[in-house]
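WARN  no MSA supplied for this record, continuing single-sequence
INFO  ligand: zinc ion
INFO  echoing inputs
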Amino acid sequence: MAGLKDYVNKKVDTNREQIEYHVKEILKLVGEDVEREGLLETPARVTRMYEEIFAGYEVDPRDVLGVTFDERHEELVIVKDITYYSQCEHHMAPFFGKVHIGYIPSGKIAGLSKLARLVEAVSRRLQVQERITSQIADIMDEVLQPHGVMVVVEGEHLCMCARGVKKPGSKTVTTAVRGTFRSDAAQRAEFLSLIKQ
Ligand SMILES: [Zn+2]
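INFO  complex generated
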């Protein structure tokens, strides 16, 4: 009975070893002495960190929203200030900030904590902020089939601080609108004013 579990554990162990090995190689290639004390545990630490920040690959974001129930509420629902942490796919550098989601249900609603889990599933992988934004909107649209959904994502990108144009403190804001939010400017304005409060 332990067969599958053993197999999975072995695979996880092998991946871990491989990542540790390659992190060590990168350290050597950038000119480090991998035997000095401060770096001895670094490959293992980086590997454990990767398991956390790339945990999204283990999850299908659609399943996260899966549990929904019928409700008569057909007015704007907003969950704002959901924090996220992601890695930009161009530099593997962190970017992070807040997600705000608003939708108008049409019979199905998601548990509020499920929206936070959706944000985690989408952001804990290599990403670009624009895609995080549109994926959240598309998955909400697909699974809940609301009248409309609007997503605003704010992000600070370390690759913009540490390299290239070097502009610390600048924020990127991306939006995605689906359904009635597309045609209804008043609805968009209501959402935007509520997330600013
Ligand atoms: Zn980048």
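The beta strands are 68-70, 77-88, 94-104, 108-110, 126-127, 148-157, 172-179.
INFO  checksum written, moving to next record
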